[in-house]
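re: ur question from yesterday

yeah so i grabbed the chain u mentioned. its 471 aa long if i counted rite. heres the sequnce exactly as i have it in my notes:
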Amino acid sequence: MIAPMIQESTISELDPRQIKQLEAADKAVSTNPSYSVEIYSAILKLSPGCLELRKKLRALQLRMAHKSTKGLSSLFGKVTAAPFMLRGKNDKDPVQSLAKAEELIEKSVGNIMAHQMLIDAARDLGLKHTVVFGLETIRKINTKDLKNLKQLGNAYLEVGDTEKTIAIGNDIQKINPSDGDAEDLMKRASVAVAMNKGKWEESEDFRTQLKDEAQAQSLEQASKTVNDAKGLEELIRQAYAKWEEEPDNLNHYRQLSEYYQRYGDLENAIAWIQEARKQEAGKADVSLEEKERNLTLEYYDDVIDQWEKLYHQNPNDETTKVSWEEAVKNRKVYQKTQLESLVKRYPNDFGYRYELGVLLFEDEDFESCLAHFQLAQKNAKVRLDAILYLGRAYSRKNFYDLAIEQFNLLKSEIQIMDDRKKEAIYELGCCYASMNKNEKAMEEFKLVYSADISFRDVADKINAFYNQDKL
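ran it thru and got these structure tokens back, copy pasting raw so excuse formatting
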């Protein structure tokens, strides 16, 4: 027997007679809550998709439970698994399971397994927001149920509530700081913030258009660098046709992503790389993961630039300013979440450690960034920069002797007076100044001043020093 189709609805969509009954039940909530529960339950049985009514019913049931017991925790202890498992797991009709779950909840609102039964039935019926509500209810009963929190995070992500997804990830990490599932959850949420999924997945018209249109000049155009939009559109069509013929070939995904990136459509560029990573051959491909990360950061940068331009056009618009700041914040959250995950999975990739160290330094978390900069020195490409940041971090923690060692090392190793060497010598001078070794400080500042009078505020420092001697 095929279950009838159920869709989530509101109270305003109910039969007018049912709405009148609910209005009467609402008035009786304070004086006769049992009557209200009875009316709510009866109408919910007839309209099981009415999420607004289900929420109203559950709120009243929970309120009554708190008044009649010491709390939900005492109810939770009375629940046993066997009867529920027998009644729920073998039911093939999710509509019946939904009704059974409500019956069990009515008997004991603290019955977590009954709520899970409701969640499973709602999921089978495609009632995504009902799934979220069921998981939220379990969270009220048992706030530290990690399995439920992870389900809730994924459910939030499925309905597009990325803010709550990230919040759930943070809550999980408070309970278990090393939880990898929480990291993955926040990572996926951060990506979703950036793009609302790739357009290509949703556009059947575009798929049909790509399939039906001609593929003229394919070999000739593929060998050329095509910069104009029309040429890129043709290349996208051709690459898409090849993907249809060989959907397991990762090169087609990469090619489509590259063309979309050149076309300026970063959402689709990211979406194709994500699809490539879902393929069996792409799951362990680190280059695809790195490509997705770089594209997503590029997307964030574009968004930030757009909001910044809008703000400068109208600096009195507070909404635009908030949106700009939020975009900057979202980029940082995404980048940090990604790097923390990469460092955990690839602890010997010292380039990732350097990037994470810089982010932590910018957040003024000088204690946490030290270890990353120390290890990052093993990567020849970032070694000198890692030493510079290590010295800065020591300096900000007032460990001036350790900082001086790092800056002197750079001073001796870097042969030309480039910006990095000027930075190291300037920081060295600041350390001596903080230690009240003003003569030594001036020696360092003079070196920078002699090479670049416009470097930071070194001219002001030198002028102040000589003017002091005249007094």
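noticed a couple things. The chain has a mean pLDDT of 84. also The chain is about 75% helix and 0% strand.
anyway ttyl
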